[in-house]
Amino acid sequence: MEWYYDLYLGEKIAKKKNKLIYKINEGKLSPTTFVIVLPRNNRDILETFPFEVLKQKYYKRQDFFIVGLAKGREEANELMCRIIVDCFRQTDTVNVRDFILDREAKKNDIKIIKYR
How many whole angstroms separate alpha carbon 44 and alpha carbon 64? Predict the structure, then answer.
């Protein structure tokens, strides 16, 4: 699993970011926590599913790029809308994958320059 540096968080769990990341990495989270990831195909914009799914054998072998965390399906849907709106406002497209990966690349470039 890889984490987006500017992780989108639902209002209900925003204060618990570090604790949630730790729990997800350890596999110990409630089934009401939803993860939002970049899709594994080129047709979809985003994927969302309950954290419990990540515990399944098939999903443990998948390499996910997590861009958001939410408490419950409704908040996850709202958060996905917010991500898409942010993408559209900044790029005039809904190509969320490129939007997120470009921002991630810029962050990495800044770090490399910063530490030289």
Answer: 14
Cα 34 to Cα 50: distance, rounded to the nearest angstrom: 4
Look at residue 67 and give its three-state secondary structure: strand
pLDDT digits (tens, 9 = 90+) for 26-46: 877 677 889 999 998 888 899
Top mean-pLDDT range of 16-20, 41-45, 63-67, 73-77: 73-77
Give the pTM. 0.83
DSSP state of 14: G
CA dihedral 104, 85, 95, 37 (to 10 degrees): 60
Question: Strand 33-37's sheet: what is its strand order?
Answer: 2-9, 65-71, 33-37, 47-50
